[in-house]
Structures are given as structure tokens and as C-alpha cells.
Write a structure and sequence with these properties.
The structure is a single chain. The chain contains 10 helices and 9 strands. By secondary structure, the chain is α/β, with parallel strands linked by helices. It has one domain: TIM Barrel, CATH 3.20.20.190. The strands form 2 sheets. A 7-stranded parallel sheet has the order 6-5-2-1-9-8-7. Helix 7 links the parallel strand 7 and strand 8. Helix 3 runs parallel beside helix 4. The N and C termini lie far apart (75 Å). This is Phosphatidylinositol-specific phospholipase C X domain-containing protein. GO terms for molecular function: phosphoric diester hydrolase activity.
Length: 332
Amino acid sequence: MPLPTSSEHCTHWCVVLSWDISNFVDHRKEISTEKEALADLLASSGDHFPGSDFHPADRKTWMSELGPDRLRINQIVWPGTHDSATNDIGVPLVTRPFAECQTRSIYDQLVLGTRVLDVRVEKGRHICHGILQSYSVDVVLDGVKRFLSEAESEIVILEIRTEYGHEDPPEFDKYLVEQLGDLLIHHDDAVFGKTVAEVLPKRIICVWKPRNSPAPAAGSPLWSAGYLRDNWIDTDLPKTKFDSNMKHLGEQPPSAARKYFYRVEHTVTPKPENPVVKMVDNEIRPFARLFIAQTFAHGFADRLQVFSTDFIDEAFVDACAGMTQARVEGKA
């Protein structure tokens, strides 16, 4: 069989390159079309909802402002961050753009108003995102403890999981209990119906999600994976993710009737042809308030509970705090 000539090699790679470019262009058009669809929905229906004009006097203590003796755990719309501890991941300008989902430290996120943290670890107790590693999980725990020492009536959900493809840190459950101690709100289904004041001075609901180690037992200081659920889908298409989030949220019971936390991740996932997290995130992040408004339009705003994002900002926190305030006031 004759070997291919140099011209045949050129023809082959030209065809492959042409196919890759064509697919890239088509995919960019698809993303653009979906973002335009969300923009059209925003223009036609708006992003106002009960509590949308609320702005806490101090985001650092927004739960306190709403009244710990009035605010029940199952009334809270919890502003969360996705891959919360990636602010120092990878090499700047080299690998970091492909893995960094937050630019603020854990402490600064909490001061901004974040109340749900998503932390990924590996066997050596370091933060990781995929194959990239960062600082020790102690940095996270110290940030949480520092914040709670300054804000005495705020509750935080701290989710810690072993990252996909990694092994569990040995005896990590014991380590978490040792480090967080009296701050931990022990697992108890009755917590959901309690006010913030009724669970104080304990202030951390810690959900530990190991890959192979035993799950936390009922009644223990840590909560098992089933108490923080979501329906994540792997897509970088903004309306596809928006619609999926809405569909799955609509399938949940009202938050007041649940004995678990349900999370909506208002994020999209980078792809090889669309790999920079911040650029991908910009396709959906501007529509967070629209999502909340649409839960009212669809008649199931009472089901929204944990609402998470990449690169959290003041407007996102205010939207969650505002909807929480409306629930406390009986307006939502």
C-alpha cells in the first residue's frame, strides 16, 4: 500500500482544522443565541420580585439584620459560591484562568454575605480543582472561624467534599470536628424549622461528602451528602442550564416542607473549546435576578433555597437576602 504524499497529509489536516474551526464557530453561535434568548426574557418580563429592592445595611451581618428570633432556617435563601476556595488555584495567567471560580478569599466571601461554601479537598488536605492544588484546607477553616468570631448571629453551610479523581483525607471527619468544635450544629432534622436564635451559639452546618470513607451518621456533628442536593448538568450553554435549573427546582417540595437543602447552581461549565471560567460564566451570571423572578412567575418561588454562583458579587447577595427578607415579612 503506497504511503500518503505530503500533499495528502496537508489535505487531511486542512480538513480536520476546517472541521474544528467550523464546530467552534457553530458552538459560539449557539451560546450567543441562548444568551440573547435570556436577554429577551429579561427585557420582556423584568427581574423584579418581592424583596428585590432590599439592600442590607451591612452584608456582613445581613441575617442579624433580619432578626435571628424571626428568621427560620428553612426561610433563608442562602447565597452560595461554587468552588469557593479557588482564589489562589494554579499558576496566574497560565492555569488559573481555567480553574479559578472565585477571586475573593473565604473570609472576604463571608464578609460580602456568602453563606454557603463549596470546598473540594484531596488526600493531603489541600484544596483542589481537578488536577490543580492550592492551599491547605486550614486556610478555609481559619477564614470561617475568623468571620464567625466577628459576626455572632450568622449561620454558614460549609460543604466539604473529596474532589473527583482524588482520595479522601484520612480521618477527615474527626479533623473537622476537632477544628470546628462548638461551632458545629449537629445533624437534626428539627433544625430546618428552628429560628437562627434557636440554634445559636452553634453556627456551622458542615456537610462532609467523602468518596469512599464512611458517611456521617445521623445525629453526629457533621451532616451527610443527602442533606445538600442539586441537579448539576454539564453544559456551557446558558439557557440550557437556566431551563434545567428551573425544571429541577420545580420538581422539589417547598423548602418549608423539606428536610434537606436544595441547591441551584447558577453556573455553566467550561469546555475545551470554551475553557476560561470567567468568560464562560459571563454568559449566565447577569441573569441571576431574572432566575429568581422567574421562580415567582412559574409559581414555585417557595422552593428556592441555596443559590450559588461563580465570582459572587454584592448584587447576587442582595437578591438572596432580599427574597429572604420578603419571606420573613410574609410577602413571598
